[in-house]
Amino acid sequence: MIDFSLTSDQKRLLELARDFSEKEIRPVALEYDRDGTYPEAILKKAHELGLMYTNIPEEYGGSGMDYVTHYVVTEALNYDCCAIGQMIGISHLSTGAILFGGTEEQKKKFLGRMTESYRSSCYCLTEPGAGSDAGAMRTMAKKTSDGYVINGSKCYITNGRDSDLLCLFATTDRTLGTKGICCFAVPRDTPGISVGRVEDKMGHRALTVTEIFFENVELGRENLIGEEGQGFKLAMMALDRGRVNIMAVCTAIAQKAFDEASNWAREREQFGQPIGNFQAIQFMLADIYALILATRAMYLHMGWMLDQNIRCTVEAASGKFFATDAAMKVTTDAVQILGGSGYMKGTVVEKLMRDAKLTQIFEGTNQINRMVSGRGILSKQCIQF
To answer: Of 75, 127, 199, 363, which is the active-site residue?
Structure first.
């Protein structure tokens, strides 16, 4: 029997997340978006309430939620501002490789130290010449008698300026492509790490994105996560889960846009009646609602798969491009329903439309995700019913 009902504990956590978003995030969402404010005070409160490291087991200082619960809470925390919500939840992606590939000692050391603070972690994969093509990575990890020396740079790193822990990917041999990539857990206070430009973005403006430079950064063998050459595999495992996370984020964006548009359709009058009485608006709202139902069902399904230890690479890629395209369409339609009032700076739906665009780009562009999905379908790696 398929059952979509939430447990009493899940309902409690959902209510906690919704209440936190309404009281702490909603009042400042537009202001933080306008000014690009780092949400430090909000992160501190989320950390105190156990809403920050929801994906990390309790033995390493996290809340220990299962995947379904984590994604339900993620949707709630991203409803009023997905930039702030993702700053709260960035550890879901950035610690994934360490959780999968690290030893018990490494997880206690690196994750246990990180979870003591609200500053979280960052996922250092992308480079100026290595975005979708991770095999073109140029950040080098040169082996020494005691460990490794890192030299190189990363770009577009979420939480790169403020994070306590860096999940870093570097190559020991560029000629090996993805097979030369290694994963390292790097504490922020390691000498040789510096932050470059802080990006000024179209959307997600309260989410800090930076360049990071590594100059003769010395790491011990204990910083290597997994074996040499396993870094790309660990990075992709983290992205599988991160892409489902983005689906929950997009559901939140779409739900917020739907709520704003439907409320406007009930209240805005033209030709002597609410515009919601017109069939054209009703059809748009119906299409929006259908997309929200679909994206929410998809992330719940994939969360269930992950909780059952079922691989969901193809499904996560498919869901990611579907949910992000849906969020872009929903927010565009919401702006259309509000008309001139929705197009003006400082309005909720205008912000949502700018925020939605990035979801089609990060954690694998939608074109890359369609390639991942298509190849998986042809090789019969997708689930069968």
So the answer is: 363
Give the residue among 183, 170, 253, 242 at the shortest CA–CA distance from 213: 170
CATH class of 8-114: mainly alpha
Task: Judge whether 336 and 350 are in contact, CB under 8 Å.
Answer: no
In angstroms, the CA 31 to CA 48 distance is 23
Contacts of 359 (CB under 8 A, 6+ apart): 246, 249, 250, 253, 323, 324, 327, 328
**Contact of 25 with 84, CB cutoff 8 Å:** yes
Contact between 198 and 186 (Cβ < 8 Å): no
pTM above 0.85, yes or no: yes
pLDDT, one tens digit per residue, over 30-70 is 999 999 999 999 999 999 999 999 999 999 999 999 999 99
Secondary structure letter of residue 5 according to DSSP: P
Q: Taking the chain, what is the end-to-end CA distance rounded to the nearest angstrom? A: 14
For residue 15, indicate whether it is catalytic.
no
CATH superfamily ID and name for 232-378: Butyryl-CoA Dehydrogenase, subunit A, domain 3 (1.20.140.10)
Token pair 């033995």 in the structure block, residue: 59
